[in-house]
Please model this.
Amino acid sequence: MVSKTLKKLAVTSVLATASLIGSGMGMAADTIKVGVLHSLSGTMAISETTLKDTVLMMIDQQNKKGGVLGKKLEPVVVDPASNWPLFAEKTRELLSKEKVDVIFGCWTSVSRKSVLPVLEELNGLLFYPVQYEGEESSRNVFYTGAAPNQQAIPAVDYLINEVGVKRWVLAGTDYVYPRTTNKILEAYLKAKGVKPDDIMINYTPFGHSDWQSIVSDIKKFGSTGKKTAVVSTINGDANVPFYKELGNQGISSEDIPVVAFSVGEEELAGIDTKPLVGHLAAWNYFMSVDTPENEKFIDAWHKFIKDDKRVTNDPMEATMIGFNLWVKAVEKAKTTNVDKVIDTMIGLETPNLTGGTAKVLKNHHITKPVLIGEIQDDGQFEVVWKTDKEVPGDAWSDYLEGSKDLIADWTKPIYCGNYNVKTKKCAGQKY
Amino acid sequence: MTTFLRRTGMQIPWLKLLARHHVIWCLVVSALLPLNSYAADDPAANNRLEPALKLLKTGSFKEKLHAIELLAASGDPLALNYLKPLLQARLYYRKDNGDIVIAEREGSQYQLTAPVDGTALGRVKKRSIKKITINNAMRRLLREKIAGLSLTNPDPKIREAAVNEMITSRANGLARTLKGLVDQEEDASVKALMQTGIALGVLDTGTDEEKIAAISQLSHSLNPAVRNRLEQLSADAGTSKIGKAARKALVTIEGRVAFYNHIETLFFGLSLGSVLVLAAIGLAITFGVMGVINMAHGELIMLGAYTTYLIQQMMPAYIGWSLLVAVPAAFLVSGAVGIVIERGIIRFLYGRPLETLLATFGVSLILQQIVRTVISPQNVPVLNPSWMSGSLQVNSVLSLTYNRLYIIVFSLAVFIALFLVLKKTRLGLGVRAVSQNRAMARAMGVRSGRVDAMTFGLGSGIAGVAGVALSQLTNVGPNLGQSYIIDSFMVVVFGGVGSLLGTLVAGLSLGVANKILEPSVGAVLAKILVLVFIILFIQKRPRGLFPQKGRAVEN
Amino acid sequence: MILIDILKKDRGGQIFLAVLLVTTVTVACLNLAVPESSVWHVSTYTVTLLGKYLTYALLAVAVDLVWGYLGILSLGHSAFFALGGYAMGMYLMRQIGDRGVYGNANLPDFMVFLNWHELPWFWYGFDMFWFAALMVVLVPGILAFIFGWLAFRSQVTGVYLSIITQALTYALMLAFFRNEMGFGGNNGLTDFKDILGFDLQADSTRIGLFVASAIALALGYLACRYIVNSRLGRVAVAIRDAEDRTRFIGYRVDHVKLWIFTFSAVLAGVAGALYVPQVGIINPGEFSPLNSIELVVWVAVGGRATLYGAVLGAIAVNYGKTYFTAALPDLWLFALGALFILVTVLLPRGIVGLLRRREATQ
Model:
C-alpha cells in the first residue's frame, strides 16, 4: 500500500520534473532574434563590417551569461550592400519575415532615413550607433552615437579656448551630416563673434581624392597671421589623400590643426599616420582611454576577432552601449515587446567605457562624454581635453532656424519626437 | 660658462638678443646662474631636473609645457636626454616605480633604456609602462628648445626659422637685431629673409623716408607676413604718402602672387592629368588597341596598389626602396592576372566588344571580393617613402609637392616606354598588325593568340604600375579601382580610341581644365562641366581628339 | 484584336503575359483575402519585393528594345529610370505637406534644415499628380531626345556612344549629389506618406502599386513588341546589323534611332516612377553607372533581343541578389561575378537561348 503510494508519488514527481525539463527545453529552443543590418559589401563595408562583428560579440557574451529572460539570443545577419533602398527592403525582411525583436544597424544617415518609414510602419526597434547630424527623433529608434552638440560644439569650444583659433575652415563632404553640422557651427561661431570673413566653407564629393587646390586654398586662408584651424567633416575615404596633401604642402598640425569628426582608430588603421601626428579628432570614446572597462572590452574584442591588432572605435562603443541598454530594458520589462521596451528604456543607465555612465534621455538620445584626442604616430589618439561630465544629446539643434523651437520628449503627456514649444503642437506624422 | 653654453647650443649673441626681452633674460639668467657653482656631473644636477620630470609624468598639458621650459632653462646637458626622446614620443614612465625611461618596441615587448646614460633596463610588457603624451603646443616648444632656436646656429634652417619666428611675432628691435647679423650671414635665402625682416622692422620704427624706402624694398617680397603688414599699413596710413606707397607695393605683390597662383594651378592640373593618364594608359592598350571594354581595368590598378602594400610588408626596413621594387612586381602581378583573364575569358569574345564589357564586369566583382576576403575589407596602409614626402619650395607662395612631381615624371616615363614598345619591338609590331587586320596578320604568320595574350598582359601590367603610383596618393582598398574606371574610359574616348598620344593629350588637358574650373565653381561642378564638355565634344568629333584613320575603323 | 495581332508569333510573350496575369491575381488575392496566419498568405514584404522586380523588368525591357533591336548599348538607362523616379518622388514629397517633422507645409524637410526659405521654381506643379505624371514621361523623354538628337545626328556609334551615355548618367549622379541642386543631395527623397490620397503603408495601396507595375509591364511589353513587329522595328534591326547599308538604302537612320531611344527612355522613366513609391526612397545612387551596367547584364542573362528574356533576366538576377545577400552575404559577389562571366562566355543568348536550344533538341 505504502509502496504503491510511494511509487505513484515517484512516478508523478518524475513526470513533473520531466515536464518541467521539457518546458525548460522548449524555452531554450525558443530564441530571441536580433537583427544585424550592416553593409558587408559595397562602399560602406569598410566601416560597417566591424559593427556587425561587435554585435555578434555582444550576443556571444550575453549568451554565455545565459541569454536574456532565460532565452538565447539568435543573430540574424543580412547584407544591405551599401544600397539605400536595399536597407529598407532588408528591414522589412527582418521585421516581417524573420520577426526579429530588435535591430542593430545602419551607418550613414541616408540608410537610417531609408529604414525609418519601415520601422514606423511595422513598429520595429532600431539602435543606431553612429554620430549623426541630429534633427530627428523617432519613437522606434534609439540614437547611441553623438548628436552635434556632443561632438562638434565642444570641439570648437576647445579650439577657441585652448588653442586660440580665430579663423575657421569648415571642410566637409557634400552630404547631410557635414551640411547640417557646418550650418550649426557657422551659426555658433557667428554667435561667438567670429566675422563671416574668417569662416571658409568648402564641400567636396564623396571619395574626393585630388585635394591640391583645396589644401592650397586653406594654406592661403591660413596665412593671414591669425591662428587658423580646419574643422573637418570629411567622410572616411577622402581623408587619407586630404591629410597626405596637407603634409606634403607643408602644413603641420602646429600651424593649422585639423579637428575631424569622422576619423577614428579604424580609419587610421588604413593610413600611414606620420603626416597626421598632432591633428585632432573629437569623439566620445578613444581606444587609448585607460580604464578597466575599456581594457576588458579591448581584450574581449581581440579574443573574439582572433586578431590582437584590430582596433576599437567610437561606433563600437556606441553599439555596445546600445546593446547593453536594450538587454537591461528587456530584463526590466520582462518582455521583448517593442512598445514595452521603448517605454522602459527611458532613464536606464549603463556604464560606458571611459569611466562614466550613459543614460537614456526622453528624446531617445543618450548622455556621452566628449573627448578631444590628438593623433599619435601609432595610430592612436591621446586625449588632450575632455568635458567635465557627460553631455546630454540634443535631438534638435538650438542653432538652426527650423529646429530651435522643437524638442523631442517620448514621455507622456508630450509623447512626440518633434514638439514645437511655441505652438505647443506635435508637428506632422500621425501623432 | 662660454664653453658650456657652446656645448648646449646657446651662444652669446643669442643672449644679446635675449637681453632685449627682459623677462626671458631674467628667467634664463636666474636659471643659469646657479650652474656656475656646481660641477656638471654633480649628482645634485639630476635632482634639479626632478621637479620638472615629475611634472612631465603627472601634469596637465599646461604643466608639461612649463616642465619643458624648466628643463630647457636648467641648462643641464642632461635635459636634452629627456627632451629629444620626448619629442620623438619615446619617453615613458614605469608604472611600478615611476622611473622615466626610453622605450622602444621590440616585437610584443618594449626594450627600456635609461635616458641619463643609455643603460639597458630590460624588456617589459606594454601594460607596465605608460607613455608621456605630448600635444601640438609641446611639440612646437620642444622643437624650439632642442634646436636652441638661434640666429647664429650653424644650421641655416634653424637660423631661418628663428628669423621667421621674429618676423611673425614682430619682436621688438627687429631691425636693429637683424642689422647686426645680416652682413655675416652666408646663406642667401636666410640673408634675404633677414633683409625682409629689417625692412619690416623699419616700418615700425623708422622715419617716413625710411619707411617708404622699406616699402619699395618689400614690394619684391612674397612673404605672407609682408602682405599682412602692408595691408594693415595701407588701412592705417590712409591717404598719406606711406599709405599710397603701401598700396602700390601691394598691387605689385598681388600681381606676382597671382602669377605664381596660375603656375600652381597649371601644376595641379598637370598632376591631376598625369594621374588620369596613368590610370587610362593601360586601358588605351586593352580597350583602344584590342577593342576589349575592360571593366576590370580598375581592379588591375587595385592589384598593383596591393602589390605595393605587400612589398612594403615584406621589406619594412627599406620603405625608401619599396616603390622601385613594387613597379616591376606590380607589372608582373597585374600582367599575369591580365593574361589569365584574356586566355580564360576574353579570347572567346573577340568580335563581340560589348560583351567583353559584361564578362569583365563580372571579373571586376570577383577580383574585388577576392581582395576583401583574402586581405581585408578595410583599407590597407601604404607608406610614403621620405623622398616622396614634402615639397619643393620655389618661393613663399609657390611650392610643388614631391609626390606630384615624381608622378608627373613617372607617367611621362611610362608613356614613352609604352610608345617605344609599340613602335620599336617585335611585340609592338605584332600588336599593331593584329589590331589593324586580324585575318591578314594571321595570314602573314603572326600568332594572333599569343599576341593577344601579350598585349592584354601589357595593358594590364601598365595598369598595375599605375596602381603603384596611385597608392602614393590615395586610399588602397577594394574600391580603389571603381573610382578610376569611369575617368579612364572618358580619357581614352576623348583622346581617340587606339591613339596613345591621344590618351596623353586628353588626360593632361582634362586635368588642367578641371583645375582651372575648380576654384571658381567647386570640385563637383568642375567635374560635371568637364563631363558635359566631353559629351558635346564627342558630338563634334565622334572619334575623339586623334581619330584612327582607315577602313579598320569603320566596323 | 490588336492584342492577338501583336502576340501572334510571339509564344514567349504569350507565356510571359499569362504567367504575369496569373501571378498578379494570385498574389493580390493571397495577400488581401487570405488571413495572415495561413500558410498561403503572401506577406506584404513579398508583394513589395515582387513589385520592385516588376519595375526592374520594365526597365530591362526598355534596355532590350534599344540594345537588342537597335544595337545601342546604353550605359545610361539608369539615368532615365532615376529621373522618372525623382519626378514621382517630388510629387510624393509635396504630398507630405505639413506632416513632415518640421510641420512646414510649403517646404520639404530637407529644405527646412538647410535653411531654404522658398520652394525652388522647378518644384512648382509637383503637388499635382497629373503634372508629376507628365514629368515622369517628359523629363526622361526630352533628355533622351536632346541627347539622341545630338549623338545620332553626328553618327556617334558603338563604344563611343556607350561611353558618353555613361558620362551622362555619371554627370547627373554628381549633380544630384550636390545639395545645392535642391533634390535632397545624398539623402535623396524619402519618408513618403501617401499617393493620390492612399496611405503608402496600407496593404491595399501596396497591392495597388504592385498591380499597377504589372499592368505597366504588360503594356510596356506589348508596346515594344508592337514596335519591333512593325516596319520601324524591322528597320531598327537592319540598322543594328548594318547601319551604313541601311543609311545608303535611304532610310533616315538617325530618326529611327531617335524615336526608339526616346521611347525606351520614357519606359525607363515610368519604371522609375513606379519603383519609388514601392521602395520608399530615391537617391542619387540610382544614377550610378554601375547600376546601368548591371541592368545590361540582366538583359544579357535573360537573352538579348527577345523582350521576355529581359523580363526573365531582371527577375532572376534580382531574386538571386535578394536570396544570396541574405543566405551568403560574403559570397554573393563571387556568385554574381561568376554568373556574368558564365552567361557571356557560355550562354551568349542567355537563359532564353538555353531553353530554346533544349526545345530544339527535343
User: Anything to note?
Assistant: Chain B is about 70% helix and 5% strand. Residues 422 and 429 of chain B are 7 Å apart (CA to CA).
